[in-house]
Amino acid sequence: MHNHVHVPVVAAKGRCVAVRDNIHSGVPATLLTGVAWRKSARSGAVGNCVEVARLDGGDVAVRNSRFPEGPALIYTRAEMAAFLAGAKDGEFDDLVG
Description:
This protein is mainly beta. It has one helix spanning 77-88, and strands spanning 4-10, 16-24, 27-28, 50-54, 60-64, 71-75.
């Protein structure tokens, strides 16, 4: 079963930069053949990491390293740029601090 959602993409300072319809919420990572998954150099070796991979066309896939065959979430380049900008600005620091 595939879930589809209607998601506003919010950038830094709360601006909505895009809305995507029918985002596939968990394509099996096994269907993403030929991609190079990578994780932060700060990640440990115990298998609890977030991994990312650039896809053809510029989209970015995200998965949990504990479940490499499990679901991968797919984001556009603009969505990932907005998230990374927010992370760099400290918008998510309260989640870990």
